[in-house]
Amino acid sequence: MSLVEELKRRNVFRVGIAYVVVAWLVMQVADVVFDAIGSPDWVMKTLLVVLAIGLVFAIIFAWAFELTPEGIKREHEVNRETSITRTTGRKLDRVIIGVLVLALGYFAWDKFLGGDTPVTADDAATPSTPENTTPTELDESIAVLPFVNMSANAENEYFSDGLSEELLNLLAKVDGLKVAARTSSFKFKGAEADINEIGQALNVATVLEGSVRRSGNQARITAQLIKVDDGFHLWSETYDRELDNIFEVQDEIARAIVDALKLPLLGEDESAVAHQSASFEAYDLYLLGRHHLRELNADGFAKATDYFKRAVELDPQFAPAWARLGEAYMGSSDYGSLPLEDAIALATPAIDQALSLDPALAEARMAKSLLDSYRGEFVDALAVAEAVLAEDPDNIDAIHAVASLVGESDPARQVELAAAAMSVDPLSELSRDMAVRAATIEGGYDAAQALLSDWISREPDNPGLYESWVTVARWYARMDIAIEQARRVHELRDGDVMPAALLVMMHLRIEDPDGAAYWLEQARSRGPDSRWATWSARYFQEYQGEMETLVTEIGAMVGSGEALSPDHLTLYGETLIRLGRNEEARRVLSEALQKAGGRPDQPPRTGEVRSLSLLANISPEGPERQALIDRVRLGIDHFLANFSDMPFSHVHAARLAALTGDRPGLFAALDRAIELGETGATWTETDPIFAAWRDEPQFREVLARMRQNAARQRDSLAAGDAL
Fold first, then answer.
1. CA dihedral defined by 226, 230, 232, 234, rounded to 10 degrees?
2. With b meaning 16 or more CB within 10 Å and e meaning fewer, what string describes 598-631?
3. pTM score, two decimals?
4. pLDDT in tens, 589-617
5. Superfamily of chain region 135-274
6. Of 108, 213, 286, 646, which is the most exposed, with the fewest CB atoms less than 10 Å away?
7. What transmembrane ranges does the database entry give (predicted)?
């Protein structure tokens, strides 16, 4: 008898086939179970090795032993005339058929039905595209949720987050595809929300979710594309790759995703996917830095700075890391104790290097816009942001920057930008702040309050919502409400200096220097050399009448080369006027206006109107002064047309009346400001523009009424009923 015939007789082939099929099923079940319990990768590999070794033993066992009615015996001990190997073979055939049916059933479920039920974050799935789906059946929109970190080391979460964001950025480059911004998508990190709820919140038709299991230089990455309306899986795939070159891995995944998206989402349009290149070690440090950059506290910015510096040391050609390094330096001036002039000095070469490496990199260009704004060069900052926005209307950073820099000079543009921001990034603090401002423009304080109250009822611990309320309440001179909400921001956003600095200003507005002193100390405790603490101290000096000290300290800042914003230059110029140093004030105020960069075809913003008014106040009669007054009038007409329910509009109108000698207009405007809640008696009394009216009884009576408003708000705060 030949060897093959003997192998058949002893059922060796049947045992081998049955063993392989059963082992395959065991591997499938183990993959799901091990992923669910978060087992390290070596467990699965060990099981595979054990099963492979077991196959050898199974074949040897089938050759050497035989199953008999009396039990298992060595093959040579069994009389061939009484052998039941044929019966055993038939039983094995039935076992094989049964197991194959189970395997085929599992395969069919995984391929065709698995998408109808929730899929574990790391399930391996077979790519599939439903035949009944056409490109016109889906909106061209997608949200990339943060991939779940399935690694044994929880600290690898920065890597899974970073990979998700990179895929989001790559998909955002696909022409015609709307991609929800990172801030909103990451709101659902760890949340127990179903796909339909997520899609409705983010205004998208599809959601990409997945998981990352990283072990050393190996990673298993699972991605799944799901329809929002019915939860059906349009595409899924699992990648097991080495990470020696993370960019090639990301490109492979992104291209596969884009290819899958093209059929249901983009038809036959072609869209190239490309991005930066760097060593994996440098990129890993970059992801760590970006992770800490978003913590928005002093420690986070310090860590981010360190990681970005190490990244560019490893790969000096890595432009995104240079750009983020510049941002980290600037963030340290807001949330840490790095002086602004030092932050600018450190950030400038980093951002310049990023732009020299990749002039078209949006990340670097927006860092440059931010740097220009920190320098007080708002014209340049706006130009850069507008250019980025023109190239990519969905660039959320550009949308936010343009809205901030345009300010109140163009309400219609603000409403338009707010709609764009809410479409792309509806859950971010900045987008919601823009929506609140738009609501205020269109419906006043009540509309803004209703919107904020609704959001806060759902997210009571979101500091950005209270911060938006602070802004609106300040516009309406409701300092008591603004103070209450700013205190919540201070509590919820640990390490942020700005809330305490704003509280200094607001307590001064209600004539509460003791409260202002307390919050100044709080600001200094969080960032003793931060720009917020520095300038809140400067305004406190102004309130207390310490003009010589104020001029000396600001002059020292200017002398050291520190860049001042237009508002800070205006404070400097006003202080010089109070000291009778008008020629110096003229130069400073002219510089403030130049930095502000107001366009002749647009109304000036509040800061510009303030500078123009002060400059007109110290200018001799003549065409130059009249031109300044005409420009002031243009701004105030704009304020009264769009913000007539806000006290600041009428205070500015009173200044214009004082400049033109319009006594009835002066007191009518001040009366209206007081009716609307104006509280700033000390600021009004010491304003150089009102110097000629300061001792008049009617003016003194105006100041007394402002102080009454301030006292009522202090009482409201003390009673705890401001809201």
1. -50
2. beeeebbbbbbbbbbbbbbbbbeeeeebeebbeb
3. 0.74
4. 999 998 887 777 789 999 999 999 999 99
5. TolB, N-terminal domain (3.40.50.10070)
6. 108
7. 12-30, 42-65, 92-109
